[in-house]
Amino acid sequence: MPDGTTTEQPFAIEGAGRPGRWLVTCDHASNRVPDWVADGDLGIAPADMARHIAWDVGAAGLARALARRLDAPAILSRFSRLVIDPNRGEDDPTLLMRLYDGTVIPANRRADAAERERRLDRLHRPYHAALARLAAAHPARAICAVHSFTPQLRGRPPRPWLLGILYSHRDERLGPAMVQACRDRGWATGANEPYAGHLQGDSIDRHALSHGRPNLLVEVRNDLIRDEAGQSLWADRLAPLLQRVLADSGL
């Protein structure tokens, strides 16, 4: 079901004036469908809108908690990835999904080029413009993108990780060190798992790699962060590691 957000603003910013180097981003924070998109209904069941296909379950709460512990700003999307995916470049064929993890998205099957452009103008582009402003607001900005993953996709084997640290082959200054720091604590940690660490045109590519900013992407298994207690626990665990890895890098 939708997350209750009613404002038309396509993003939320918390702690814009916080002095920390990190900027915490959450591209898939919401499962909201604006009322001007297919009358607020993509044509799939409420149970599917509550699944990971519509948003990253628990990621918003983790991102907020992590940003507070890092004394850093956070930016979160306010629209579902099924409406238009802010973690995809504008020319990415998966920008507007028509089928995801076995679920057909009826409203997207009917979406034409004009509808795609409308969603870009009202949602995707304003979100990235705001992210760009926040990224540029600190002269030594580092970016931590927060996502979550489902323990198992339909028809696939269970995923063995508690979390994954994703990073691009174009910038390995933080990623491997963060993987090792997590593994040293006994956490089953994927290195560029369960997803590849580089996607051309995605948020990290656009706002970190293209500007030489230190970066990494944290994926936490969503059953671990479904509630506030889990989000707080993982924020407590991850924040000091992020600070240490960045400091140790000398960047």
Question: What key phrases describe this protein's structure?
Answer:
251 residues; alpha/beta; Aminopeptidase; 7-stranded mixed beta sheet; two-stranded antiparallel ribbon; 7 helices; 9 strands; 16% strand; disordered N terminus
Protein structure class: alpha/beta
Strand content: 15-25%
Task: Provide mean pLDDT, rounded.
Answer: 95
Give the biggest beta sheet.
Answer: 7 strands, mixed
Number of strands: 9
How many domains in all? 1
What's the CATH H-level homologous superfamily?
A: Zn-dependent exopeptidases
Shape: globular
Tally of individual helices? 7
Strand order of the largest sheet: 1-3-2-6-9-7-8
CATH level 1 name: Alpha Beta
Low-confidence stretches: 1-6
Rg, rounded, reads: 17 Å
End-to-end CA span: 42 Å
Helix content: 25-40%
Summarize the structure in words:
The protein is an alpha/beta fold and 251 residues long. The chain has one domain: Zn-dependent exopeptidases (Aminopeptidase). It is built from seven helices and nine strands, in the order ββααβββααββαβαβα. The strands form two sheets. Strands 1-3-2-6-9-7-8 form a seven-stranded mixed β-sheet, with helices on both faces. The chain has a two-stranded antiparallel sheet with strand order 4-5. α2 crosses α7. The radius of gyration is 17 Å and the shape is globular.
